[in-house]
TrEMBL record, chains A, B:
Organism per entry: Allosediminivita pacifica
Residues in the signal sequence: none
InterPro entries: Sig_transdc_resp-reg_C-effctor, TF_LuxR_autoind-bd_dom, TF_LuxR_autoind-bd_dom_sf, Tscrpt_reg_LuxR_C, WH-like_DNA-bd_sf
Highest taxon above the source species: Bacteria
Matching SMART domains: HTH_LUXR
Domain called HTH luxR-type: residue spans: 173-238
Gene3D superfamilies xref list: Transcription factor LuxR-like, autoinducer-binding domain, Winged helix-like DNA-binding domain superfamily/Winged helix DNA-binding domain
Sorted UniProt keywords: DNA-binding, Transcription, Transcription regulation
Official protein name in the record: DNA-binding CsgD family transcriptional regulator
UniProt entry tagged with the keyword Hydrolase: no
GO molecular function annotations of the record: DNA binding
CDD domains membership: LuxR_C_like
Length: 242, 242
DNA sequence: TTTCCACTCCCCAAAAATAGCGGGGGATCC
DNA sequence: GGATCCCCCGCTATTTTTGGGGAGTGGAAA
């Protein structure tokens, strides 16, 4: 049983996925995965309102640009469905009843996306949200069999794609921030859960003035303009948890 | 090759995990998984300051209650590390340099948690955050070999545990997390990046009063006590990104 | 040992946020 | 066609937060 690093078997593809180092390699791998699983398309992309984020896949260019131009992101039931769920979703179990959704679906089929689809939502730090989708043209039974058989693998592939994308994508620099003192953490946390300064001070059994000093200190360390900003920064840097 | 539904082999455990229907079953499975992988402890739990959220695992009761009592959540480097990362983390690669962190570590070892650990961060909709951790007492080399060998399986197990927990936990219903309007999102986002109300209003080209209405509306929808609370909630539910 | 830093406390004036009242136009869904 | 929601604007008043000072303790590091 040879383990061929550059092969196209399941294990070889997984191994290459775990060691990929460039976006081009990921693009190549996504095409190999498409062939391996014999589906029409596979696509991995980030989702946010900016729209200009990372993505790779096998969708026709025409469809991708049409999708962006028309702002389909806002009406795509797949995106809506994935955003609200944790587990992978089969496209046919989504709500396609809206008029906009049906138009979108027709448009997608006309662009050769396929009538069947399966999407895995993925979430990372700082509110990152991405999707890994496969689509094809086949019967409901065949698609169910396929997704049932490869479910576990697909979750892993989606996971690795996101991991690589996070590693390779610039603009995600760790933003080295000065550590907060325990008291500062407590102060910001209490403010983050809705306490007023007076309440927070009472909870910590210190004077409100002292609490204020902590907040000011934390604000300075975090480079924040005001309390709200400081709490927001501490939250998004994982310094506090609410 | 018999597929034994009630067995304790890898495939059997995975199958049971995918079909579990009660929290008790999950607790039983986590113990079987611990035996299967021959580690000291496995634990799956949600992370937020309420503390009273779902969790199951094999940690001694004494340690769990001590952890909660002392608010270790706020100083646990594993939590901090997982919160900022997407990929699984080996405990020994975290920052244990702080005094509080070292005390925590000593306390943990004294409670029999083990010197080695591996944690997988998991994120769900509405800002849900959970961790799946394994810990044991062994050499660095043995632990590296173990995690390297079972990495993929562990990611899947963590994924399934979270899926089941989300399905089984009733507490996710009462807070459907009413969606914010686009304007409300913009308003909270600007406040989150440090703008004052006046600046935010000017940026959005609306009157400060109108901006105020959005903030109040968002605060109401989020059940927040004040602006800072609203921004914090919106952030931790993934409604805004800064 | 001295020099940091975290922690604690206090005053005051200015700025910001909150709370309440009122008004109107437009879209969409039932 | 009415209900509901989003989008915009006006006013006044009160409370809270903020930013600028200054001052003392203890412990840890250099």
């Amino acid at each position: 049983m040879g383990y061929v690093e550059q092969g196209t078997g399941r294990d070889a593809l997984f191994g290459r996925l775990e060691t990929a180092e460039t976006p081009e390699e990921l693009q190549q791998l996504i095409e190999l995965l498409r062939d391996h699983y014999s589906v029409d398309h596979i696509v991995y992309h980030w989702v946010n309102s900016n729209g200009d984020q990372y993505g790779c896949g096998t969708y026709p260019k025409a469809w991708v640009s049409r999708y962006l131009e028309r702002g389909y992101l806002r009406i795509d039931p797949v995106v809506q469905g994935c955003y609200q769920r944790f587990h992978p979703v089969d496209w046919k179990r989504l709500d396609w009843s809206g008029k906009a959704a049906r138009n979108f679906q027709r448009d997608a089929v006309e662009h050769g996306i396929g009538n069947q689809g399966y999407s895995i939502p993925i979430r990372g730090p700082n509110g990152q949200f991405a999707m890994f989708s496969l689509s094809s043209n086949c019967s409901d039974e065949d698609w169910d069999t396929f997704t049932e058989e490869h479910r576990r693998d697909l979750i892993l592939v989606a996971h690795y794609f996101n991991q690589k994308a996070l590693e390779l994508e610039p603009g995600r620099k760790p933003e080295p921030s000065q550590a907060l003192s325990p008291r500062e953490v407590e102060a910001l946390t209490l403010l983050g859960v809705g306490y007023s300064r007076a309440q927070a001070a009472e909870t910590l059994s210190i004077s409100e003035h002292t609490l204020r000093v902590y907040i000011e200190s934390a604000r300075f360390k975090l480079g924040a303009m005001n309390t709200t900003h400081a709490v927001a920064r501490a939250l998004s840097r994982g310094l506090i948890v609410i």
